[in-house]
Amino acid sequence: MSAAVPNLVFLLDTPNVWRGRALAGTPARVLALAEHSHQAGAAVTVVLCDRGAEYGTEQDWPFDVALVHPSDFYAPATLARVLGTDAADFLVLCEAEALVAMGRELAGLLDARLVYDMHDDDAAVAASVGEPQETVQTHERTQRTALRTADNVIVSTRNEQAMAATAGIPAPRTALLPNGADPYQRRCWGPEVDAATLVFVGNLYYQPNARAVDAIAATIWPTLRAGGLDVRMRIVGRGPALLARGGQGIEFTGRVDTISHALKGTTIALAPLTAGSGAKMKVLDYLAAGLPVLGTREAVTGLPTEHPGVIVEDDLYMWPARIAALLRDPAALDQIGRAGRRCIEQELPWQRIGAGLVRHCRWWLATFRPGAKPAVDNHCAGVPRWLTEHADQDALGAPETTEPGQPRWLRQTTVVPDGR
User: Fold this and answer.
1) Can you say whether the dihedral through the CA atoms of 165, 169, 170, 173 is positive or negative?
2) Which residues form the Glycosyltransferase subfamily 4-like N-terminal domain (predicted)?
3) Fewest CB atoms within 10 Å of the CB: 246, 275, 285, 311?
4) Does the structure show a pLDDT above 60 at 420?
């Protein structure tokens, strides 16, 4: 492919998409990088693993999308036939386990450079939720292997950038591309003071988000209610029935068509995160909506140092008092919300981040040739953390429109020649 038009193939296995939109952080990042690098001039194809979601039609996708059966998604030879053997300059994977298991083989079949989008630190997530040390160490080993296997690395925070450097990845082969938000797609509602409505957004099958909801229900909300504060709580996102039960002023919306409209009519956005890793898409969505945010230090990971738009408080027992004080100060709510929106517009728009990815890809194509990589023991890759988490909670759908060897193109502008 021409360096003037780099060709990117993204692989994404998730049940958390709906008609071209992401319902969780990882797919939100992947689809945003795909969309905005496409807008910046790259040719883009996303390969989705069929998990039985509502994938929509061609009109829902701004780039080429192939939907494949799970048995094909992890089969390099089959994927190469779906895509065509000269389909990519760059093959981008965001899961260390998938990259180690089949990334190098598939990149070779496509004659592509292998890119690890290290958007999260699964070892840190596992440690933060108290998983066994053996599990944490397994994630650490897999992440190190993925870093050393890839030709190039994308990171979203300084922490991941340091991890890449520690693993011996030369700085010129690493691109820091933070998470962002699209100020044109995310309407700036601002805080609706009279609504007195708090909001939390998250995929509740993800343990750090589930813990945050537990903290709201068990620590923050009862104190607010006991203090006689007339306030409502809205929790947005898919989740297990046992967790997502409403009552006592807490509304669980489940899946929504758009995050932007789910934030309309709210006053303060909450991010009481005590576990996790990486930059938080929910916080960026809050800021784009012009909402003042109350969060922990974990919640502001990946934001500019001054985290405009976010008030940081790690002691969750102090949150009711913080919330009550903010609700009594409409001017402060408006000022904080405007600062967050400015941060998105000036520092973290996806348009700039997508253009940065294209710029790095062009430079990598012009500067580096794919080097020989050591053999990878792909039998020890393990299973992605999210996949185990969703399977344990019966949150994975079954393929409905694909069969092994029978992919479905949701949108296709490049025809793959027969026999490839």
Assistant:
1) negative
2) 25-180
3) 246
4) no
251 three-state secondary structure? strand
Do 251 and 232 meet the contact criterion of CB atoms below 8 Å apart? yes
Question: What is the count of structural domains for the chain?
Answer: 2
pLDDT tens digits, one per residue of 129-144: 999 999 999 999 999 9
Question: Hey, what are 375's tokens?
Answer: 């053999």
> The CATH number of the domain where 299 resides is what?
3.40.50.2000
User: Cα separation of 285 and 415, whole Å?
Assistant: 36
The residues facing 22 across adjacent strands are 17
d(CA 377, CA 25): 29
User: Is this model's pTM higher than 0.90 or not?
Assistant: yes
Q: Residue 419 domain-assigned?
A: no
- Rounded to whole angstroms, the Cα distance separating 362 from 3 reads 5
Quote the distance between the C-alpha of residue 319 and its chain's center.
Answer: 27
Of 79, 91, 101, nearest in space to 146 by CA: 101
Q: Of 347, 381, 399, which residue is a domain's last?
A: 347
Q: What is the pLDDT of residues 167-226, one digit of tens each?
A: 999 999 999 999 999 999 999 999 999 999 999 999 999 999 999 999 999 999 999 999
Instruction: Please answer whether residues 407 and 82 qualify as being in contact, where contact means their C-beta atoms are separated by less than 8 angstroms.
Output: yes
Tell me the one-letter amino acid at 116.
Y
In one letter, which amino acid is 164? A
For residues 298 and 390, membership in a common domain is answered with no
Q: Is residue 418 domain-resident?
A: no
Mean of all residue pLDDT scores within the chain: 92
287: exposed, middle or buried (Cβ count in 10 Å: 0-12, 13-18, 19+): buried
Rounded Cα distance, 57 and 20, in Å: 8
Whether residue 145 is predicted with pLDDT greater than 70 in this model: the reply is yes
Whether 271 contacts 283, CB under 8 Å: yes
Cα(14)–Cα(389) distance, integer angstroms: 12
